[in-house]
Structures are given as C-alpha cells and as structure tokens.
Design goal:
alpha/beta; TIM Barrel; globular
Length: 288
C-alpha cells in the first residue's frame, strides 16, 4: 500500500531501526524492491532521482511505483531523491509522491534555508513529507578531488548549523554528510559515528538520513540503524547487482533472444541485495 511516511519514521525512530530507501528507474527494479520488502515483511521507501524521472517519464514511473505499491501488503513510500528545484518538487507531488527531498546543499546556507523553507511550506500544505540536506555528500565527480583522502571536515555537516537550519525550515528529516560517498565504491566510504552523535544531540527528536550507503561495511549499517538515523539510501549496489546478472547472461550461448531471460535474473539479483539491506537495517518484520 502507498502510504505517507510520518508514522513509519516515528516507529523507526522509537524502535531504533532504519527504513531502507532504494532507487528505481524502471519496472524490474521497482518489482525487486517491493517484492523484497514483502518477503521480509518490511516497510520500504522507493525513490526516484531527477535522472530516473527524465529517463522513464514522470507519469510512467509514478504509475509503476503506485501500481505495485497498491498490490503490496507492506507500506510503501514514493519519494523524490535529490530534487533541486521547486518545479520538480511540485511535479512529483502532483504525480502522487508521498515524500520529497529538496537538495540545496551546494548553495550557501541562507539560500539552502530559503529554498528548503519554500518547499516545506508547499509540501506540507499538500500533506507531503520533506527531506533536506545539510553538508556535502560527494558523488563520483567529487571523489576525484579527494586524491586518496576521506572527505574533509569542511564538506561534512556542521552540527552547530543543524538546529538553526531545522528551526528555520520546518523540515521533517535531514540528510547529513558524515563521511559517506555517492556512487561507485572508492574504498573510503565510512561513517563518522562521533559526528552522528553530535548532530543527534543538536536534533534529539529529528530523524536523520544517510546517503551513499552502497559499499559501507555491514557492521556500520547495523550500528547506524540503532542511532537517530531512520532512513538509509542504497542505489549503486542495486545497479551493480543488475549489471552482473546481465553480464552473466551474455557470457553464455543462447539459441534464442528473450528479454525476459535477461531482465528476470537481473531483477532477482537486485531483490537479493534489497533483502540483505533490509535485514541489516533491522526493518524486517516491522510492517504491521
């Protein structure tokens, strides 16, 4: 069932587990995510980036997610991941998204606050949950600048700024930069737990979000799920599982061509990854 996230986050916050948030851009990925959640009896967040929306089409991807969610016997949140403008946010809300993220983290903090506050006002008027970001969570393009080093403190979320940001914007949850990296694994992904704790002291009642969880050690994922982090994003590991399965198919000879024989095993591979992450986050069995 397609649901709004407030109660799911409240339960995760109180019971100290995290909701898995998994990116999709087509039918097979969406099936894998929702079927995994059903098998593990877990609430789940299915999210799309602006790139995924452009690739599949706003109406089309929303229809795929909402259709599968409507048939599911577990709660499913449809979420915009890394929206960068009010226009994108409005389009997603009109399409039926129950949660949106506005990412103005690359802007000066005053501009971040202004845009985030505008989005919160609009989204809340439509009953939609809002996530924002403070700090810089590097992607593949940013890793090149690290030259073998972990992200510097200047790029990470400043705990002293978090309370001001949340009070000024009214945001529902906050994505924080605590050492993780978007994209392909670099070998430098890790969570600075002391920073998570400092932020939680500033925001003792606010759910936190971790992006760039692909490539993190299992023990880090299990540990962070017992903090105020209530949502963990996974994308790259799903793509890699999909790609490996497709490569395996083409590594064998076939007497006929059937797209279902290519995409089916890839979907199954993604579902296995999603199930594993759900168990690590502790959300298995939490779908009432």
């Amino acid at each position: 069932m397609l649901v709004k996230p407030r109660e799911l986050f409240a339960k995760a916050f109180n019971m100290q587990y995290a909701l898995g948030a998994f990116n999709t851009s087509n039918l097979e990925l969406t099936q894998a995510i929702i079927w995994a959640a059903q098998k593990q009896r877990a609430p789940v967040i299915v999210q799309t980036s602006e790139g995924a929306i452009e690739y599949t089409g706003q109406k089309q991807i929303a229809a795929i997610i909402s259709s599968l969610a409507g048939e599911a016997n577990v709660p499913v949140v449809m979420h915009l991941d890394h929206g960068h403008s009010m226009a994108v946010v409005k389009n997603c809300i009109e399409a039926g998204y129950t949660s949106v993220m506005i990412d103005a983290s690359t802007k000066p903090i005053d501009e971040n606050i202004a845009l985030t506050g505008e989005v919160v006002e609009y989204a809340h008027a439509h009953g939609v949950w809002v996530e924002a970001e403070l700090g810089t969570i590097l992607g593949a393009e940013g890793i090149k600048t690290l030259q073998g080093e972990a992200p510097s403190d200047e790029l990470l979320t400043n705990p002293a700024q978090t309370k001001k940001f949340v009070e000024a914007t009214g945001v529902d949850c906050l994505a924080v930069a605590v050492g993780t990296i978007h994209g392909a694994f670099s070998g430098r992904e890790y969570i600075r737990f002391e920073l998570v704790e400092e932020i939680a002291k500033q925001l003792p009642a606010l759910p936190l979000v971790i992006h760039g969880a692909s490539g993190l050690a299992s023990e880090h994922l299990q540990r962070v799920a017992h903090t105020n982090v209530c949502k963990v994003n996974v994308d790259t590991e799903l793509r890699l599982a999909f790609e490996r399965a497709v490569k395996s198919y083409f590594g064998q000879e076939h007497d006929k061509c059937d797209p279902r024989k290519i995409l089916g095993p890839a979907r199954d591979a993604v579902q296995r990854v999603v199930e594993e992450k759900i168990r690590l986050f502790g959300s298995d069995g939490k779908a009432a």
